[in-house]
């Protein structure tokens, strides 16, 4: 026999769909945050390398023009690092918003699941009572037949 779809079943299905979407969104946001962190680390490694190179140029007595070019490049790279920090901060904020949204949808889904379980338990209790009533009626009829009533 096909199970009738109740409004609770529809709400549960919709909540689960929203949870799937929220989970995917959170995953995308976390991946973007990881990409931003990786890019920042790479920029910081470049900065370290070029600053070491600048120090070596200074110690080696490199021409002032070469030293100034290296310094300008490092400043440009530092500006890129600052921009990457802004992007990372924005990505972290998106993760926080996505996580909060996911948690809200998860709580809603859990609440519907509790209602579904209660409904199933109530149906089982009704079925058990009906079975008991039928058994009691059967036993009563059997006693009536045996006692000749």
UniProtKB/TrEMBL annotation:
GO terms for molecular function: cytoskeletal motor activity. Its main location: membrane. It is found in: Cell membrane. InterPro entries: Flag_assembly_chemotaxis_eff, Flag_FliJ_proteobac, Flagell_FliJ, FliJ. GO terms for cellular component: bacterial-type flagellum; plasma membrane. Belongs to the FliJ family. This is Flagellar FliJ protein. It comes from Zymobacter palmae.
């Amino acid at each position: 026999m096909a199970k009738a779809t109740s409004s609770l079943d529809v709400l549960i299905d919709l909540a689960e769909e929203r949870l799937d979407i929220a989970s995917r969104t959170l995953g995308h946001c976390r991946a973007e945050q990881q990409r931003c962190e990786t890019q920042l680390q790479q920029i910081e490694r470049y900065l370290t390398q070029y600053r070491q190179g600048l120090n070596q140029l200074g110690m080696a007595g490199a021409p002032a023009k070469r030293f100034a070019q290296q310094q300008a490049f490092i400043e440009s790279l530092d500006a890129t690092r600052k921009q990457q920090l802004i992007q990372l901060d924005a990505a972290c904020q998106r993760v926080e918003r996505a996580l909060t949204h996911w948690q809200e949808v998860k709580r809603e889904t859990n609440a519907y699941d509790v209602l579904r379980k209660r409904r199933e338990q109530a149906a089982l209790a009704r079925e058990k009572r009906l079975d008991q009533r039928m058994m009691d009626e059967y036993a009563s009829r059997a006693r009536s037949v045996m006692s000749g009533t």
